[in-house]
Design goal:
37% helix, 19 strands, 5-stranded mixed β-barrel, 474 residues, alpha/beta, Transcription Regulator spoIIAA, binds iron/sulfur cluster, 4 domains, Rossmann fold, 6-stranded parallel β-sheet
């Protein structure tokens, strides 16, 4: 069973929040404005969810928020270690902050999250970015109030990247980004050790939250007007294996489905080897569970899958997909694909394209392999050149774009229920929302529709989105 941060430990952190609050009140009286914080997030939904907690702690400690680094008194970058370019972006940001901090000596710069949970990165920051005041890893998130208090008051670099298998901290403050939709973490960490992936090293082993804690969080969200719940975990299919009860992820999903006021349930991510018939049937049977499945296959070649330590074959993956399609007709499917894994040949890559063509995913998240120090794959050699890998990557996009457009065209004429998110990111004259299958739908409408569920007739299909028009309710 997972270790938990004790009530006393959480109480101690609440004490630091109060001390920061008093500190901030003194600062406001002296300088005529409240201290402002800026947070920036890199990486996955788990990181987004962690930043919501960071912002919750900062809000409770009396900070205001800003998007302008030149005005910020505290800057916190919540980082990702999954790909190299996210790391480079953070180093770029730290470089930009150096002259800002030279002009404003009291500014506090913090870097947290997966990237700094790797010792070589923390050493690099300490050595070449001395203007960073605060470094804390994924396991020290709950301790941020204490660490920030010390960074502000002790004027020295505060570092906490202690190795840990991880413990669960309940009841941390949280400031949600969206009033209608929320991420709810059901478990943390991963035991799978795919050979390219840094997650098990920086997020620790799998640990599940108690079902009653998850349910209480969902009920509280619903009480506050939220209706779309996304259950989060690196491998949700493993949920519950470390609990004393025999509740698994499918059971948990049914429990959330039973909560009055919940309208939609989404979840991610599922590992193909652990996707059970029970979970497939639960998706089919629960009315609030969106008919949508993200099932990363990563590569089509059995040889590469073995080298990735994914523990399924292409045939097994395709068989699972067939099962899903049979049990849940019209399910929307998405996946992750890595192009250019070490030792991958053009023949291996053809197998990946074959999976795309056979499954016909609605959309994919594709990445060129990024070497991660400390992972087994980092020791393997490449067969393909960079140019060949990029060529394959572009081919993959071409093949998928055609499929995505074809799948989207199937929606034209249908009436879809969408939750209206706000102004469209691609056309400021339109609003946009997502339908049950998570496709983006743009439409002309008035601002009072934001945050509401409405029916929209789909009129036009694009590769990445749909257009529609609201349907009047009778
Ligand atoms: S399942 Fe594999 S890819 Fe996913 S987080 Fe775990 S180790 Fe990484």
């Amino acid at each position: 069973m997972a270790k938990h941060i004790t009530d006393d430990q959480m109480k101690e952190q609440r004490g630091y929040i109060m001390r920061l609050r008093e500190d901030n009140a003194r600062y406001a009286a002296e300088y005529g404005h409240t201290r402002r914080a800026l947070t920036e997030t890199y990486g996955c939904q788990q990181n987004e969810n962690d930043t919501e907690r960071i912002r919750g702690m900062l809000r409770d400690a009396g900070f205001e928020f800003t998007d302008d680094m030149k005005n910020a008194d505290v800057v916190i970058y919540n980082t990702c270690a999954v790909r190299e370019n996210a790391e480079q972006k953070v180093f770029g940001r730290l470089g930009l902050l150096k002259p800002v901090k030279e002009r404003r000596r009291n500014m506090v710069i913090g870097v947290c999250g997966c990237m700094v949970q790797q010792e070589h990165i923390t050493e690099k920051i300490k050595k070449s970015h001395e203007h960073v005041d605060l470094i804390f890893g994924t396991h020290a998130l709950y301790k941020m109030p204490e660490l920030l208090y010390k960074a502000i008051n002790e004027k020295k670099t505060v570092v906490d990247i202690a190795e840990s298998d991880g413990a669960i901290a309940e009841d941390m403050p949280i400031m949600r980004d969206d009033a209608k939709k929320a991420w709810v973490s059901v478990m943390y960490g991963c035991n799978n050790f795919c050979t390219y992936c840094i997650v098990p090293y920086v997020r620790g082993r799998e640990r599940s939250r108690e079902p009653k804690a998850v349910i209480a969080e969902v009920k509280e969200l619903v009480k506050n007007g939220c209706s779309e719940i996304s259950l989060l975990g690196q491998n949700v299919n493993s949920y519950g294996k470390d609990l004393k009860t025999d509740i698994d992820f499918a059971d948990l999903m049914r429990m959330v489905n039973d909560i009055e006021g919940v309208e939609r349930i989404r979840f991610m991510t599922s590992h193909p080897k652990d996707l059970s018939d029970k979970l497939i049937n639960t998706i089919a049977e629960c009315d609030k569970v969106c008919k949508q499945l993200h099932l990363p296959f990563q590569a089509g070649s059995d040889r590469i899958l073995k080298q990735m330590n994914r523990r399924y074959t292409k045939a097994e993956y395709l068989a699972k997909i067939e099962k899903v399609k049979k049990a849940v007709p019209n399910i929307s499917l998405s996946t992750d694909v890595i192009v250019g894994f070490p030792t991958e040949t053009n023949e291996d890559f053809e197998e990946t394209l074959d999976v795309l063509r056979k499954v016909e995913f609605d959309n994919i998240f594709s990445f060129i392999y990024s070497r991660r120090e400390g992972t087994p794959a980092a020791k393997l050699d490449f067969v393909l050149t960079d140019e060949e890998i990029h060529k394959n990557f572009n081919r993959l996009l071409e093949v998928q774009n055609e499929i995505s457009l074809k799948k989207n065209k199937e929606y034209v004429g249908r009436i879809e229920r969408i939750l209206v998110d706000g102004v469209s990111k691609t056309n400021p004259e339109m609003l946009s929302g997502r339908c049950d299958s998570s496709k983006i739908v743009n439409f002309k409408g008035t601002d009072d529709l934001i945050g509401k569920y409405i029916n929209v007739r789909i009129t036009e299909a694009h590769t990445w989105s749909l257009n529609g028009e609201p349907v009047k309710e009778n």
